[in-house]
Amino acid sequence: AQSVTQLGSHVSVSEGALVLLRCNYSSSVPPYLFWYVQYPNQGLQLLLKYTTGATLVKGINGFEAEFKKSETSFHLTKPSAHMSDAAEYFCAVSEWNNYQLIWGAGTKLIIKP
Amino acid sequence: SQTIHQWPATLVQPVGSPLSLECTVEGTSNPNLYWYRQAAGRGLQLLFYSVGIGQISSEVPQNLSASRPQDRQFILSSKKLLLSDSGFYLCAWTPGQATDTQYFGPGTRLTVL
Q1: Are strands A10-14 and A107-112 parallel, antiparallel or unpaired?
Q2: Could you tell me which of A28, A22, A20 has the C-alpha nearest to residue A5?
Q3: Where are the beta strands (DSSP E) in A1-113?
């Protein structure tokens, strides 16, 4: 069965530093990949998604992620963290003809002033 | 444009009481609908999804149930709440398969005392 692993339940970075949130999936079939962000007491919002084509995907708020098939990874990055980036981030995968997303456990991003 | 509503926003209920949470989507037709739960410190748990009126798939055996009486209405219910039902309940919709973006509602915070 498909699974998603997000390394680190909490990640702390200084304001202005690089943000790297890791996501690995288990499928041998190239999946569809998503990153969502959740601010406290709110619903989730799509940051970016990969379906086909270019493996470097740009999303909202300056985030991007790269699909690496050989590493079964879809890590999320942002060159310079802002205080407003403090939130919880979820990675999710799906396969064609499937009605469900498989979710990672989430990573809380903490931004230090 | 499409919007998704959930109510109530917060709810405090005693153990053993019934529950009804409502989700409605505007601006689209025949969406796929989802109910998720987030327990404290845990990730997203898919509870139910529906691909059409009266069609409900349950992912986790529990004392909750779901119904879809109208195309754009999804209701989560319980006859008798347990303490373990406390959490943040999120409704989401997609225009088609799960490879499409899931759009989330603002959520309902349920506390069972």
Answers
A1: parallel
A2: A22
A3: 4-7, 10-14, 19-25, 32-38, 44-50, 56-58, 64-68, 73-78, 87-94, 102-103, 107-112
Strands A73-78 and A19-25: antiparallel
Instruction: Tell me the residue type at A74.
Output: F
Contacts of residue A34 in chain B, CB cutoff 8 Å?
101-102
Is A41's CB within 8 Å of B90's CB?
A: no
Using an 8 Å CB-CB cutoff, list chain A residues near B106: 42-43
User: With contacts defined as CB-CB under 8 Å, which chain A residues touch B99?
Assistant: 32, 51, 94-96, 98
The pair of structure tokens assigned to A17 is 């530093």
List, for residues B9-53, the tens digit of each pLDDT value. 999 999 999 999 999 999 999 999 999 999 877 789 999 999 999
Percent of the residues in chain A that have a pLDDT greater than 90, as a whole number: 74
Half-sphere exposure in the Cβ direction for B19 (13 Å, CA)? 32
Q: Give chain B positions within 8 Å (CB) of A106.
A: 43-44
Q: Which of A41, A51, A105 sits opposite B43 (nearest CB)?
A: A105
Phi, psi of B18 (to 5 degrees): -80, 165
Decide if B99 touches A, using CB distance below 8 A: yes
Q: CA-nearest residue of chain A to B105?
A: A43
